[in-house]
């Protein structure tokens, strides 16, 4: 099989998928300013040797296959599961906040007493932001996580280290859940809650 060499943009697409795991065609199109859907389809079709694709309703979701992982030296194998939508939602926040260069997924934050695994973390306007995605978990699970953030705040170690407590950013699915999360976050210095439809 003859494999075509990749150009710079194609390499950048592979590197972005290495960073973000799964992306919809429209997310890739938006990030790389690929203009029309037809153009985006052509670009991604030309890269089919390096990409796997799953269909979710009318959406196409892309991730690195074995050849794609080898090309960008990526050891992490993506598994298609119920977590894919969670990842797609998290990526919408990455795009919404204009691609923070220090964006990292699944970061463990601890002050020695309380530990939270943050869905993502980044800096904007010299302020650390913690990202949480509310997709399939129960509101009880969300409240428990928020209580852990409140414990981190009460302990004061993060505030002492940074000079402030990080902004907590939630992304949820409905207006009803947004209101529940906003109420649960009362008492934290800065908490923002978006709905998925609002930012995409």
What structural keywords apply?
five-stranded mixed sheet, three-stranded antiparallel sheet, 200 residues, 9 helices
Return the string of H and E elements.
HEHHEEHHEEEHHEHEH
Radius of gyration: 18 Å
Number of strands: 8
Helices and strands: which structural class? Answer: alpha/beta
- Distance between termini? 39 Å
Instruction: Report strand order across the widest sheet.
Output: 4-5-6-7-8
| Beta-strand share of residues | 15-25%
Q: How much is the average pLDDT? A: 95
| SS element count, helices | 9
Shape: elongated
Low-confidence stretches: none
Major sheet: 5 strands, mixed
Measured as a percent range, the helix fraction is 40-55%
Protein architecture, described:
Helices cover 43% and strands 24% of the residues. By secondary structure, it is of the alpha/beta class. The strands form 2 sheets. The protein has a 5-stranded mixed beta sheet, sandwiched between helices. Strands 1-3-2 form a 3-stranded antiparallel beta sheet. The radius of gyration is 18 Å and the shape is elongated. It starts with 7 loop residues before the first helix and ends with a helix. The mean pLDDT is 95.
């Amino acid at each position: 099989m003859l494999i075509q060499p990749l150009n710079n943009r194609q390499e950048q697409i592979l590197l972005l998928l290495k960073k973000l795991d799964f992306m919809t065609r429209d997310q890739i199109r938006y990030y790389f300013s690929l203009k029309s859907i037809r153009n985006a389809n052509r670009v991604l079709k030309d890269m089919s040797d390096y990409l796997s694709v799953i269909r979710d309703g009318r959406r196409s979701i892309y991730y690195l296959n074995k050849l794609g992982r080898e090309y960008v030296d990526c050891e992490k194998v993506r598994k298609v599961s119920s977590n894919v939508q969670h990842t797609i939602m998290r990526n919408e926040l990455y795009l919404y906040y204009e691609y923070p260069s220090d964006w990292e997924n699944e970061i463990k934050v601890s002050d020695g007493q309380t530990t939270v695994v943050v869905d993502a973390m980044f800096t904007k306007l010299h302020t650390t932001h913690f990202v949480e995605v509310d997709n399939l978990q129960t509101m009880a699970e969300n409240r428990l996580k928020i209580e852990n953030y409140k414990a981190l705040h009460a302990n004061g170690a993060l505030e002492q280290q940074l000079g402030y407590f990080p902004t907590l950013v939630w992304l949820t699915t409905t207006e009803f859940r947004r209101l529940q999360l906003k109420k649960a976050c009362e008492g934290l210095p800065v908490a923002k809650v978006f709905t998925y439809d609002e930012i995409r």
